[in-house]
């Protein structure tokens, strides 16, 4: 594995240790039976679904993993508490905040890894963290403990201002993606790369753009016009004076896809609406699929600038 992959595996492992320490501390401080069940399930799930996977990956590369933290549960029963007690509201809000951080972390780890098995590990961990995040977020919504931004319109059950903001950002990013991909298509003659570009445009960018537009229209907003379609202005491979090579175009496409993953991850952890959460969750996994196709094509062309390989295995 290269240095970046080992870094993210190590960070994922040690941050998992910290999450367990904090969750067990909260567990010892809350007397709410329902919240205790959620926290126990979280700590158990992190150990078996996150910690063990990451430890195994590092051990396979010959690294000695740090010792697991000593469990706080041996100090007494749940709710025993300490001198300073946290309220149940504070516990839930903090667990949601941790979930937002780990979702963003896993998204970043996926796009930083060149090895498919490592990306798959972090995609799986993303799914596990999304389940935990949705559980605690739903509990917080049920208890009305969050302080969302004000509604964006006077419409009943209107989306809030933050949700409209991330939808607008997501729409304009799709506009930019359309412009970039159609411009890239003007610079390439390679049929495989051209086919990948067309699939990204027609099956991901344009359908996502339409869904975001429909949500904004339903909220009563006038959406900005789409960029003019450039695919009918030229034949593929025709461009003005400055041409980018196929490899340069493929590299630029990779940066675009990485930006899309970060934008959709941020949107996912900002929205309150269940429908919007499901929409951005679907978008995020579509971005992951597109990124996998890009990585497969990029590796076959040997265009990746892979960081130095690192290992603790004896040669």
Brief description of this entry?
The chain has 315 residues and is mainly α. The chain has helices spanning 3-29, 33-60, 88-112, 116-142, 161-185, 191-218, 246-268, 274-301.
Could you please describe the fold and organization of this structure?
With 315 residues, the chain is an all-alpha fold. The protein has two domains: 3-142, Ferritin, CATH 1.20.1260; 161-301, Ferritin, CATH 1.20.1260.10. Helix content is 67%, strand content 0%. It contains eight helices and no strands. The protein has helices at 3-29, 33-60, 88-112, 116-142, 161-185, 191-218, 246-268, 274-301. It starts with a helix and ends in a 14-residue tail after the last helix. The mean pLDDT is 82. This is DUF3231 family protein. Pfam families: DUF3231.
Enter the CATH topology name of the largest domain: Ferritin
Q: How far from one another are the termini?
A: 15 Å
- Number of DSSP helices? 8
How many runs of DSSP E, i.e. beta strands? 0
Note the overall shape: flat
Largest sheet: none
Instruction: Extract low-pLDDT stretches.
Output: none
CATH class of the largest domain: Mainly Alpha
The CATH architecture assignment of the largest domain turns out to be Up-down Bundle
Amount of beta strand: under 5%
Radius of gyration: 23 Å
Secondary-structure class: mainly alpha
Instruction: Give the helix level as a range of percent.
Output: 55-70%
Can you tell me the CATH superfamily of the largest domain? Ferritin, core subunit, four-helix bundle
Q: What is the average of the pLDDT values?
A: 82
List the helices and strands in order: HHHHHHHH
Number of domains: 2
């Amino acid at each position: 594995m290269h240095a970046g992959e080992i870094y993210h595996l190590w960070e994922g492992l040690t941050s998992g240790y910290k999450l367990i320490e904090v969750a067990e501390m909260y567990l010892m401080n809350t007397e709410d039976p329902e919240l205790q069940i959620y926290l126990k399930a979280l700590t158990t799930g992190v150990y078996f679904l996150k910690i063990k996977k990451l430890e195994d990956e590092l051990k396979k590369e010959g690294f000695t993993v740090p010792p697991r933290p000593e469990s706080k549960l041996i100090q007494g029963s749940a709710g025993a508490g300490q001198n300073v007690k946290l309220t149940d509201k504070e516990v839930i809000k903090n667990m949601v905040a941790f979930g937002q951080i780990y979702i963003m972390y896993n998204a970043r780890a996926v796009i930083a890894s060149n090895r498919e098995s490592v990306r798959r590990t972090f995609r799986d961990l993303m799914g596990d963290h999304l389940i935990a995040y949705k559980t605690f977020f739903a509990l917080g919504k049920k208890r009305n403990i969050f302080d969302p931004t004000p509604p964006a319109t006077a419409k009943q059950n209107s989306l809030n201002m933050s949700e409209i903001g991330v939808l607008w950002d997501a729409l304009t990013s799709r506009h930019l993606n359309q412009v970039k991909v159609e411009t890239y298509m003007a610079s390439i003659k390679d049929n495989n790369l051209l086919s990948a570009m067309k699939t990204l445009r027609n099956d991901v960018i344009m359908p996502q753009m339409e869904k975001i537009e429909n949500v904004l229209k339903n909220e009563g907003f006038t959406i900005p016009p789409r960029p003019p379609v450039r695919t009918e202005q030229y034949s593929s491979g025709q461009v003005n004076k400055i041409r980018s090579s196929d490899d340069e175009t493929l590299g630029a496409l990779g940066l675009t896809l990485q930006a899309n993953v970060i934008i959709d991850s941020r949107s996912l952890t900002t929205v309150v609406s269940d429908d919007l959460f499901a929409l951005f969750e679907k978008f995020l996994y579509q971005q992951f699929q597109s990124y996998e196709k890009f990585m497969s094509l990029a590796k076959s062309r040997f265009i990746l600038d892979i960081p130095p390989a690192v290992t603790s295995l004896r040669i």
